[in-house]
Amino acid sequence: MSNYPKPDRAALVEIYRRADLIKQNDEKVIREIKAGRLVTPYYSPRGQEIIPSALSASLTDEDYICTIYRGTHDMLAKGFPLPELWGELAGRVTGSCKGKGGTMHLTYPAKGMMVTTGIVGSSLPIATGLAWAAQLEGKGRVSVAYFGDGAANIGAFHESLNMAGLWKLPAIFVCQNNLYSEHTTFADSTAVERLSQRAAGYGMPGVTVDGNDPEAMFGAAKMAIERARAGEGPTLIEALTYRFNGHVMGDADRYMDKAEKAEAIAADPVPRLRQRLLDAGVAEDEIAGIERANAEAIAAAVEAAYAADLPDVAELKRDVFAHEIA
Amino acid sequence: MSNYPKPDRAALVEIYRRADLIKQNDEKVIREIKAGRLVTPYYSPRGQEIIPSALSASLTDEDYICTIYRGTHDMLAKGFPLPELWGELAGRVTGSCKGKGGTMHLTYPAKGMMVTTGIVGSSLPIATGLAWAAQLEGKGRVSVAYFGDGAANIGAFHESLNMAGLWKLPAIFVCQNNLYSEHTTFADSTAVERLSQRAAGYGMPGVTVDGNDPEAMFGAAKMAIERARAGEGPTLIEALTYRFNGHVMGDADRYMDKAEKAEAIAADPVPRLRQRLLDAGVAEDEIAGIERANAEAIAAAVEAAYAADLPDVAELKRDVFAHEIA
Amino acid sequence: MSETITETKPVTMIQALNMALADAMAEDDRVLVLGEDVGDKQEGGIVGVTKGLSSQFGTGRVKATPISEQAILGAAIGASLAGYKPVAEIMLMNFTTVAMDMIVNHAAKLRFMSGGQTHVPIVIRTMTGAGFGTGGQHGDYFEAWFAHVAGIKVVAPSNPADGYGLMRAAIEDPDPVLFIENMPSYWTPGPAPERGSRVEIGKARIARAGSDVTLVTYSRATNDCLAAAEALAADGIQAEVIDLRTIAPWDRAAVFASVEKTGRAVIVHEAVREHGVGAEIAAELSDAFFGKLKAPVKRIGAAFCPVPFSKPLETAFVPQAAGIEATVRGIL
Amino acid sequence: MSETITETKPVTMIQALNMALADAMAEDDRVLVLGEDVGDKQEGGIVGVTKGLSSQFGTGRVKATPISEQAILGAAIGASLAGYKPVAEIMLMNFTTVAMDMIVNHAAKLRFMSGGQTHVPIVIRTMTGAGFGTGGQHGDYFEAWFAHVAGIKVVAPSNPADGYGLMRAAIEDPDPVLFIENMPSYWTPGPAPERGSRVEIGKARIARAGSDVTLVTYSRATNDCLAAAEALAADGIQAEVIDLRTIAPWDRAAVFASVEKTGRAVIVHEAVREHGVGAEIAAELSDAFFGKLKAPVKRIGAAFCPVPFSKPLETAFVPQAAGIEATVRGIL
Ligand SMILES: Cc1ncc(C[n+]2csc(CCOP(=O)(O)OP(=O)(O)O)c2C)c(N)n1
Ligand SMILES: Cc1ncc(C[n+]2csc(CCOP(=O)(O)OP(=O)(O)O)c2C)c(N)n1
Ligand SMILES: [Mg+2]
Ligand SMILES: [Mg+2]
């Protein structure tokens, strides 16, 4: 991986800005839920911030992503506006989906966030379709499918990778391997040691990378994205990471190995990146400024969301079809 | 593959007996359909006879198979009785399924033929379940899933191989790669050159073998079956072969490469095996005797089928549930 | 090839659909066709609805796929989100069972779940119908499943001209449309469609006018209803046959107007009767016309079992004109 | 763990189902349990219906699976063909969409297609129901789909005791049974089941006797019907509430007997009303009681849209007691 492209200082700072935003946002969601002000199922991406933050550095608003219920990090990394995010989490009309989609279905096509799905594996076939469209259009767009390690064992994964490999689509399949699918470990659900090994079966390169390492993740992602833009076809990236919380908020997480978890949290990638920036000479002030701005933007979005209206029941008849139901 | 177990003379003769039965049976089905005496969709296995004939040499009646619409060869190789086969093809009460299942759903659990399916890919999950049962039971039974090259790209393939690999099930996944799925070539549907390459992604051995070579096929199958019986887990076998006819009888097959087809037919594996037997010193008489016995058995089964009754419409209410519908 | 068809001669459903696809692709280059075998240059697959399309429009827009129904529909959904209008083929209706997630959880719902930000203007073509001895996994009619799901439209033409017009309308529709084709009647010729015509989605057709009873039907069963109506007419019984054409949303106004007139209704479809589309229509009619009907609303569907193989069973499984006729006589 | 529950105290649905599984596994070692997370030693997965089972019966018989619904059901079907009695979990009903082939084309049909040589005595457990803000892909009721398929039975208990008894009966049933659990009412306590009791499949329960109107319902909606009945009783209106318990085949005799008495029927379910199970029952009642009903048969179901996220929408989406009450008053 020594031949991977490396992020420059500005890129690293930008990765940190996104990762910190995700981390702070996650902490805020959890606080708001615990305080009873926000009521929603919530799948925390804490611990997985670096993956989409480093990957999104090589994406534009024209590029597509499809992600999953545990996807606020993927969304925020790609620039999902906070007011529309919080409006949606709070079920308000100001939500990007007018409160109709919710936490598991965040969508913002204006910035290429096409689908967030609650069905394991289903981000892949749709992202494959978006990649097909990008190929037909021929403007160099790429399409990213985010999914978990558990999703790598469902049929849709297989069909999508074969189709993408066969058609040489500009797709990047990013498995965020956090070692758990709900209460089941990676080892208990997967017959292969490294998911990237499966790529060979679809005629595409596969790479396993430390997803919590911003440089490695940036490099692997940039390679894959450039490959896709150049018409050379898809890549499977297995990004190793860890889920700091249980599967869903409220989950007792007794099934998680305590030592393994403590170790992962001790190696929290977000403060680790912060330290790396400091070590590289980025001023504490600059970093603090980024963090402050993130905090303020989140706080403002939360307040705006709570102040906004809840949708009218007439919305049940709207957006079912193009024409409102009589 | 030099370390593969080899069939002895008796085994080779027995493989020929089955292959000839399949070939003659196929020719008879086609003649009967052309003559208008038999009315059924028919998916000829001509050209693929050796695969199940060589494999079944290492199976017992206790072992399970699940196969597909193009499966009369798999059935006959495992000992499906001809009268029940023809009864079913002719939709008679003497058919193994009383005429209710038909050509695409031949079933004969008394000899381990558990499911014949018309849904591409679906033989695999069910065979996986039978393998699970065999493992639980612990008596050394194995479970074989037959399927085509086209089926290797559908989700059920992936889920089944992962589960079988993970649980180390006594399953043998046998892909009969005849280079076509309906009117589409293998190359146009598959992102990898050799399907056996996919096995690595499921932690199981994968092997590509000339399915038309009885020794190679016998060896690969025996290895896999013994592995499974010994509790060492599943194997994926890609058996290379060729479909001598179009996908379904009546199919114009203009999409098939003429030269490729002519070459395959010139290398017809059944007469090739016959010649091999002769070369190995098996008497022409013995072979002719086998062929005559096959022909007679088929002819008797056909006549018996035509003489049998068609089912009564009351059958529509039977076998829907355990208890007849009122 | 579509060009060789003269419009004045009768055409088959296969030809009509082929024309519709060719015309739509020629008019709008966002229209794409994908599915198993559709790239086959010679035949366009086993049945040939897509014959000639890959030669005419190229294998970029006419895309042969692996046998991967989830990926086929994912490809269609994704491409539609990006502005294309894909027509995806799921060869037989029974094979929708390997891709229901894509249809039900995504195609039908993305508009609503995104609050109207995205939508999925795809057509899913699929064929079905008993009669060819294909047994229990190749002939089911599952339209009731999809009619039960908000966000997807369901159409099922009974004749080539409607097939053409509905296909053109379905491709232009801003919502996902499931397009059901009956296989055994594919080769039955019928009046040629007017090139460029559209059949509005949601509008039924009075296939035969009558005053004594309303037969509500769609797809191939329309022919059986017409045959029954002929037989009844010999005895002076005038059955009005309504070919729904669109199953969801069904044309309530047309059906209600007819039953208002006749006071009697029989719903006929090839799907299994229990929990079929006939149940919804019967329930609605019985409620709306409470106290005004001259007879109970009857429903006719296939027998409650898988499609059987053996010919006598297969024939008895599917509703036939004689049974329809008898049912009508029973409520007169 | 099931042992710690004393049978006299009220139990939740989770506890009742856990007891039923434990009791069935203890009695018959052919009973297997498989599904995502079911092997979790601590919790038995997120909800915990399978809690303690893997410790008690081992991870051979209680098998945690990958997220591979087709393989899960394939495993169950295959094992059942070999003589086992697997209880497979498809975590949420919306996830049946990735495995419909296994359910519809195989589990339901193998007995028929094999002419009775094989059969598939499996139970498919699945949960669903709106109310937790899980949005459009986690709360659908699709029971009408399965009721439309010949060869599979469908049950949906409304209370813990029935949950226990139906589970025991479903496991013993020689045919495949889809077992629908309502998630939001999982934690509601109810009278404890009698250990070892069975609730016969196909038999409804009169949850409340009454003479003025029949409310036909199942699953959680039973509670809403009972609440509506209470409110109506305050005005002297006596509603009979029939909890179907089994949706397919439904207890025609019980429902008919009640409507014979009351002359009025309202069918209530949480599934979208259009093409829901209510349609079949309404169609049957309207036909059988033609001219004898005092009012049209009414149907109440969820709104015709995906399950919405925002609380006020989600609440309005699901049928409520007040709406049921109003509908009843409208036909009196
Ligand atoms: C088809 C399907 N099956 C089951 C589920 C239930 N489920 C939701 S999340 C999840 C675990 C997914 O694990 P993984 O793919 O590793 O993603 P992670 O949650 O770890 O990010 C499961 C089983 C689902 N949503 N969809
Ligand atoms: C899920 C599904 N999709 C499509 C079909 C239609 N179909 C029947 S056979 C076939 C080709 C299968 O090819 P392959 O797996 O190579 O088997 P072969 O026919 O060559 O033996 C297709 C596409 C089907 N039966 N099931
Ligand atoms: Mg995970
Ligand atoms: Mg093939």
From TrEMBL, chains A, B:
Keywords carried by this UniProt record: Oxidoreductase, Thiamine pyrophosphate
Cofactor(s) for this UniProt protein: thiamine diphosphate
Gene3D superfamilies, sorted: 3.40.50.970
Gene Ontology BP terms: pyruvate decarboxylation to acetyl-CoA
InterPro entries for the chain: DH_E1 (IPR001017), PDH_E1_Alpha_Subunit (IPR050642), THDP-binding (IPR029061)
Annotated GO MF terms: pyruvate dehydrogenase (acetyl-transferring) activity
Domain Dehydrogenase E1 component: 18-309
Keyword Transferase listed: no
Protein name as annotated: Thiamine pyrophosphate-dependent dehydrogenase E1 component subunit alpha
Organism: Sphingomonas tagetis
Source organism phylogeny: Bacteria, Pseudomonadati, Pseudomonadota, Alphaproteobacteria, Sphingomonadales
Automatic annotation (TrEMBL), chains C, D:
Listed Pfam families: Transket_pyr, Transketolase_C
SUPFAM superfamilies tied to this protein: Thiamin diphosphate-binding fold (THDP-binding), TK C-terminal domain-like
Superkingdom of the organism of origin: Bacteria
The Transketolase-like pyrimidine-binding domain, residue ranges: 11-188
Example of a GO MF term: oxidoreductase activity
UniProtKB keywords: Oxidoreductase, Thiamine pyrophosphate
Matching InterPro entries: THDP-binding, Transketo_C/PFOR_II, Transketolase-like_Pyr-bd, Transketolase_C
Keyword Aminoacyl-tRNA synthetase: no
Cofactor(s) this protein requires: thiamine diphosphate
Protein name: Alpha-ketoacid dehydrogenase subunit beta
